[in-house]
Amino acid sequence: MSDITAKINRIEELVEKLNQASEAYYNGKDEIMSNFEWDAMFDELTALEEETGHILRNSPTQTAGYESENGKREEHEFSALSLAKTKKVDELVKWAEDYPIWLSWKLDGCTLVLTYDDGKLVKILTRGNGMVGTNITHLKTAMKGFPLEIDYKGHLVVRGEATISYSDFAIINDMVEDEDEKYANPRNLAAGTLNLDDVEEVKNRRVHFYAFTLVHMDDPMVSWGDRMQFLEDMKFTVVDREKGDANSLPQMIENWTKRVESGKMDLPVDGLVICYDDTDYASTGSVTGHHATRAGYAFKWKDESVESRLRYIEWSCAVSTISPVAVFEPVQIEGTTVSRASLCNLSEIERLGVGRECTLEVIKANKIIPKCIAVKDAVGEVEIPSECPVCKAVTKIHTSASGTKTLHCTNPDCTAKNVKKFSRFVSKNGMDMDGLSVQTVLRFINEGYIKEFADLFDLPSHFNAISEMDGFGEKSCENMGKAIEKSRDVHPVNFIYALCIPMIGIDAAKKIVGTVGFEGFLERLEEGIGFEDIDGIGEEKSNSVLHWYENLTNQNSLKHLIEVVNIQKVEKTNTENGRCVGLTFVITGDVHHFKNRDEFKAYVEAEGGKVAGSVSGKTNYLVNNDVESTSSKNKKAKSLGIPIISEDTFLEMFGG
User: Fold this and answer.
1) How high is the pLDDT of residue 29?
2) DSSP for 183-242, written as a single string
3) Predicted confidence (pLDDT) at residue 624 exceeds the cutoff of 80
4) Cα-atom radius of gyration of the chain, to the nearest Å?
5) Which residues are bridge partners to 74 per DSSP?
6) Is residue 579 part of a domain?
7) Number of structural domains found in the chain
8) What's the whole-model pTM score?
9) How many CB atoms within 10 Å of residue 477?
């Protein structure tokens, strides 16, 4: 085989592998390879194409992305071309020329294009292949970061990135019971989420849109910076940005890189973007492949890889899955000490070739998440645990339809499977244990420190051991201890919510406490007396409470909790003579007298009124401090003849 033939064969092999990875990348499927591996293959492909002149039509160097599998396809009004990329700062400086430029984040999510006409959002398209995207307008109320209505009445097209933060990703992924449905990273979760049809499910995934360019508006506005400020004024969430020039660019990049390396970035980013402030000049460039040469230039960091010797594999149970974590000799990567990296599942162990003893090559993906990308000098096979690290029940290996192998605990009552309940227990609406994240609680469960809710209050007895754990120390234990002590003093409404009784949320807990008090709640549980006589509870919720208490485990959990917390004494609420009896309010916009809308709602309910989420014929008053607003709620209220009052007017009429 000639040298040129071998190179052409390699090109075809790389194109196939990269396209398979892109298809998974853009559709929220199992990750086939890391960004580090993808970039290395892409760079190799680019070099081979330049050397041989052999470029396939479906080469990723010629395409802008990968078209989604689901939904109705529509052609983009303005092509959503991808940006040329570099890892060299001097190439960015050269590109900037003598023009003012802007630096912003290259967010790692899913690009969306929003279209507005006559002040209303009329269409949302995914980027797809850059020419044709998928219409997901039905999800417009499920995402945050953009308004449904704007003051501008002309034709407006906005492009931005739909992302999920690292903290939200961790919480959501930990709640996924089936390991086969877990996501590799926030971008993977965002892509999978935007393929869903269920608006409520998408809403639960906390997708946030960040506008990164105003593609078109009818009125002339040349400055990119002015355009972004315009979007901000229209209530879009806009990507962070900084203005500069070729001279200041290297220092700007260094400063922004340090922000990522600090570990405080909650948004997933995989690089930086520079663009010209002069959008007219930016539009004069040519198109090479699927890159507009002056539309912008993306900068990607060079991933620093470090080798370290594997010490052991730690097995952590979450929900129903037991996941492997590589623990290796501590190494310095990107300025921080790293000693742990997730191995995801059994299939990843096999793919990498991890042995009982081996050397790992590790990077910090996007400068944040430690990731093992290669293995060498492997000896022996990894020992798969035969029992759950939490409850010691027998484990089993499950192979999904896609071939992914995962390890599972067979005990349906394993403490780790109740992580959702612990998440609710420590939440702000529950016991409000500040700083105790789901991941932290899960680690303590796996260490055997937590088996039931009351054990959380005994964590200080384990602080000597916890302070030696990776990611903890004396200061974090001190802060944790303060949060635990503070949470001991709890309002009965929050306490009942924290018990995780099915169908009993904050509102139901308020009704129970307001009507019978906390002591009455306990008495009814003991005597088996229902709660259906309480307004707003009903037979179904009442039965749910009694059925929950019939479980001996729940009884013991409640008993142990009452022994270690202080339930605040509150008076039962008599709303019969309240100032808002028989009235229904809708509260919208910012409030200034009450701390927030939740406190406002609590006052209305304490005075016998109701608060609804939307305006209807049953609404008596719409409370909006911007009485003259042209919002959809104000318009609906006016059309129905419902009075729109400010917060001050409400207080004059109903006290407070």
Assistant:
1) 54
2) -SSHHHHHHHHTT---HHHHHHTT-EEEEEEEEEESS---BHHHHHHHHHHTT--B--EE
3) yes
4) 28
5) 133
6) no
7) 6
8) 0.56
9) 19
* Cβ atoms of 275 and 292 closer than 8 Å: no
**Residue finishing a domain among 299, 324, 345:** 299
pLDDT of residue 73: 85
Confidence band (pLDDT; 50, 70, 90) for 44? Answer: confident
Whether 106 is catalytic: yes
Confidence of residue 68 (pLDDT cuts 50, 70, 90): very low
Report the CATH number that the domain containing residue 644 is assigned in CATH. Answer: 3.40.50.10190
383 and 345 part of one domain: yes
For CA atoms 587, 592, 595, 600, give the dihedral sign. negative
> Residue 456: what pLDDT?
94
Angle at which helices 166-175 and 186-193 cross, to 10° = 70
For residue 344, CA distances in Å to 183, 306, 351 come to 10, 20, 11
Is the pLDDT assigned to residue 397 strictly greater than 80? Answer: yes
Residue from 29, 106, 182, 601 carrying the catalytic annotation: 106
Taking the C-alpha atoms of residue 146 and residue 114, their distance in angstroms, rounded to an integer, is: 9
Last residue of a domain, one of 462, 487, 512: 487
333 and 294 inside one domain? no
Confidence band of 63 (pLDDT split at 50, 70, 90): low
The answer to the question of residue 262 being in a domain is yes
Same domain for 31 and 141, yes or no, is no
Judge whether 500 lies within some domain: yes
Judge if 32 and 168 occupy the same domain.
Answer: no
Domain containing residue 549: 492-567
> What's the pLDDT score for residue 532?
86
498 and 472 share a domain? Answer: no
Same-domain status, 218 and 279? yes
- The predicted-structure confidence for 561-613, as pLDDT tens digits, reads as follows 999 999 998 877 666 667 888 899 999 888 888 877 877 887 887 787 888 88
- State how far the Cα of 331 lies from the Cα of 359, in Å rounded to an integer: 12
Q: Which CATH number goes with the domain that contains 443? A: 1.10.150.20
Same domain, residue pair 241 and 203:
yes
Long-range contact pairs involving 334-337 (C-beta distance under 8 Å, separation at least 24): 334/261, 334/304, 334/364, 334/367, 335/261, 336/261, 336/263, 336/364
Q: Are residue 482 and residue 593 in the same domain, yes or no? A: no
Residue 353, beta-bridge partner list: none
Q: Using CA atoms, how far apart are residues 309 and 343, in angstroms rounded to an integer?
A: 15
CATH number of the CATH domain containing 239: 3.30.470.30
Give the lowest-confidence range in 175-189, 335-349, 586-600: 175-189
Residues 413-455: tens digit of each pLDDT? 788 777 778 888 988 889 989 878 777 888 888 888 998 999 9
Q: How many CA atoms lie within 13 A of 158 on its CB side?
A: 35
